[in-house]
Amino acid sequence: MAKEVTSKDENYSLWYNNLVVKADLAENSAVRGCMVIKPYGYAIWEKMQAALDRMFKETGHKNAYFPLFIPKSFLSREAEHVEGFAKECAVVTHHRLMTNPDGPGVVVDPSARLEEELIVRPTSETIIWNTYKNWIKSYRDLPILCNQWANVVRWEMRTRLFLRTAEFLWQEGHTAHATREEAIEECERMINVYAKFAREYMSLPVIVGRKTESERFAGAIDTLCIEAMMQDGKALQAGTSHFLGQNFAKAFGVQYASREGSLEYVWATSWGVSTRLMGALIMAHSDDHGLVLPPKLAPIHVVMVPIFKTDDERKAIIEKMNSLKTEIEAQGFTVEIDDRDNLRSGFKFAEWELKGVPVRIAIGPRDLQNGTVELARRDTLQKESVGSEGIGTYVRDLLDDIQKNIYRKAYDFRESRVCKVDTYDEFKRKIEEGCFVLAHWDGTSETEARIQEETKATIRCIPIDTYPDNGKGSCIYSGKPSSGRVVFAKAY
Amino acid sequence: MAKEVTSKDENYSLWYNNLVVKADLAENSAVRGCMVIKPYGYAIWEKMQAALDRMFKETGHKNAYFPLFIPKSFLSREAEHVEGFAKECAVVTHHRLMTNPDGPGVVVDPSARLEEELIVRPTSETIIWNTYKNWIKSYRDLPILCNQWANVVRWEMRTRLFLRTAEFLWQEGHTAHATREEAIEECERMINVYAKFAREYMSLPVIVGRKTESERFAGAIDTLCIEAMMQDGKALQAGTSHFLGQNFAKAFGVQYASREGSLEYVWATSWGVSTRLMGALIMAHSDDHGLVLPPKLAPIHVVMVPIFKTDDERKAIIEKMNSLKTEIEAQGFTVEIDDRDNLRSGFKFAEWELKGVPVRIAIGPRDLQNGTVELARRDTLQKESVGSEGIGTYVRDLLDDIQKNIYRKAYDFRESRVCKVDTYDEFKRKIEEGCFVLAHWDGTSETEARIQEETKATIRCIPIDTYPDNGKGSCIYSGKPSSGRVVFAKAY
Question: Residue ranges of the alpha helices (H) in B212-360?
């Protein structure tokens, strides 16, 4: 192989970074912490966006766009929000450069200082609720169901491609409702949209759950989340949906006249997923050969590699490939014929495996004679010889099977790493082994913090739709009463 | 009408602003110069994006994403580029806020000053060519055909919704080629993609042309553009495509090994359109009743308004509407039934006219009896009674006709305002009347500047595909020889 990938077992972190860079998904840029998303990586993100955007619209949401900049004072309006987001962020202080009077290049023009500094949005609750104030007068203006696709900036000190970058791409939904019940329902609806997307498109078996108080979004009353297990047994939070209560409505003075004529504060939710999902996708399914992409998010579904010695053979094989390509594309899939003349087929095989293309079709002169093709699936690396007749439906069914198999594999992996534990000793051992540990907890932030200090494990969520357990028990740490098991794990 | 719009003839500028705000397209935000794009406005932008994105992909381009921030020093690398873009821009100087030690709120943490200031991208040539440096080694890596959809910031002093805002949304294509000829071909291909999009989707009869030296993009060898006439006779530049020569390759040291083994600098293009297109769309077609949207960009194609007195009538009409809706939607169009119970139908008619929905269908009890509907088209405001049988294909054909009619109307308007002029006196008169003036020019920047000073008219372009005129003549200003007529106009 031309591009060697570090083995997953040898160095998981390096393996991940190798994949991202060598499969041409993303790379670090000249700007600290900011990444370049390369065309192949961006094509996957576009597929994610398209599926999510469709699901948002089906649930009644509309896209809009709010400013990149937030006046500094807005951040302070909501007391908890400022604690969470006003720390590490990009601050715009000036609006002009000028020719350097003392040498080459340009310098900041000291006379162009802004009256109030602007923050590059780390999240948009404040600027959006300041806007909603003007949109909402009466109950007839509600609900407002907006989403925006945008870039945000959080000045992270330790960055990793896709998982934690200073700038990242995301969507943020911001909804306004007349009642508490309706906002809670929306919050739940959207975490379920995320769960469905993760399971059906990303082949990612996520757990839907609720964050503990200390892990909540800054300014939220309740945070729901989806949590996924990576192949090192660590958890990755893949999406969150927040019930914000009336916190932002009160901070920005957003009230509506109810049907009965009284003036009420508006109820809010916000929810988001980001390019972090790319990290989850890569980490959950890939192997030492490279990416393993679920067909529904693969930019290329089938790659065809011709095997030939003579020019005549090449010509006949490419002709055959073009006709098979048409048949497969008619099923709605994307096919690429790798006709590069300067590379051996072994090199090509390795490269497309690295890039995670779900199905590879190779055709040699013998195949041409026999009316067969050699078909290799990326998820299992199995090869088979099949007749080229009816290739379109064959590939369609195969891709469907691959999509399900990738999910099943990730599901089985997680199941093999989930355990119920009732003593702190076993807890520590299982956390060290890289497990999701279902354990009783006394419900206090103190215990949660102690456990994290001692084991680096955090409460990923109080599970709702997977491993729900409301049986009473005793906290593994304090021995105090617990009203159900929660999911502990080390996390990204 | 509930929301009155200032008449176009009375105050064109106020009329425009009224439309943007009252039709719920966009509004000013709390951040100076930054707009909020509201859901209805964003839905139009999404339709523009979808059509353009498809056309980019059909011509072989792939999307990618590059950082929001540009190191200050990058801007100085290309001599002309820094002149054009390093003036008014948002400068990030710090990466942290802290609790105000002297009072409430947060302040910039003076210890978190960046070593090198970051500029919020006003355009991305520099950061992208710095990246391409690592992507390009040999002729086999070329061409690179990337596009990005992104936000950019230029600190404009006088802003107008969509036309000139501090932050705006756009796409920027950045391509790298082995030869000069290939880059020039790409530059021409993309201006033609823009022209096709403007004409076929926006119903906008644009002129494809070449910018004079003084109007060129900062850092370009050649800038091609599409120019459209607004209803006040002013020109609006709707898109540009730049041949950048080897300027950025040289500034960032991007060379490739040719097939013959020599080391060559790479050739570049860049091209972009922005949310400014929204301004062009609104200004080109709307009237005193509101927006007039070409069907291909309308978020809602057909609105249905029930006319009734009794509850039974209402029920029967809505039932009928639902069945017609299904028929029309089967043709691929979007239909909305305006069933709001608190508004008169006259108010609804006015509101949907304001929003520019191409077709309105009203059904009353008599229509129900007769099997007819009242159909009103937004472009001509004509009404007709038609049978509800076969409504799907009828509406399809009607929308097609509306799309063409809007183009024809804008085309005829422009033709009525274009004139060839051979004396400077007539030139000044025609410019004052709001015309596109085709006149001879001596080819010098001095004459161009003088004319602009005296008349506010600029050379919009040296026309290529519309009004091309390579006949020799004498400059209207200097009397010196001219090699063809150029398009003069006042511009946005």
Answer: 247-252, 276-285, 311-329, 345-354
Which residues of chain A are within 8 Å of residue B45 when distances are taken between CB atoms?
65
User: DSSP per residue over B3-67, as a string?
Assistant: S----TTT-HHHHHHHHHHHTTSEEE-SSTT-EEE-HHHHHHHHHHHHHHHHHHHHTT-EE-B--
| pTM reported for the whole predicted model | 0.97
Chain A residues close to B146, C-beta within 8 Å: 39
pLDDT tens figures, B69-101: 999 999 888 878 887 887 899 999 999 999 888
| Dihedral angle computed from the Cα positions of residues B161, B163, B164 and B166, in that order, rounded to the nearest 10 degrees | 50
Supply the ipTM of this predicted assembly.
0.97
Question: Mutate which of A21, A25, A29, A343 to test chain B, going by most B C-beta atoms within 10 A?
Answer: A29
Concatenating the DSSP letter of every residue in B119-182 gives: EEPSS-HHHHHHHHHHH-SBGGG--EEEEEEEEEE---SS-BTTTB-SEEEEEEEEEEESSHHH
Q: For residue A491, count CB atoms less than 10 angstroms from its CB and return exposed for 0-12, middle for 13-18, buried for 19 or more.
A: middle
Nearest to A54 by CA among A45, A43, A44, A63: A63
pLDDT average, residue stretch A38-62: 98
- pLDDT per residue as tens digits for the range A93-123: 999 999 888 888 899 999 999 999 999 999 9
The pairing of beta strand A88-99 with beta strand A106-108: antiparallel
CB contact under 8 A, A127 and B87: no
Looking at A161-229, list the stretches that DSSP marks H as alpha helix, in order from N- to C-terminal side.
180-200
Q: Is B147 on the interface with A (CB under 8 A)?
A: no
- Assess whether the previous peptide bond of B143 is cis (omega < 30° from 0): yes
Report d(CA A22, CA A290) in Å as an integer: 9
Please report the number of interchain residue pairs, chain A to chain B, with beta-carbon separation below 8 angstroms: 187
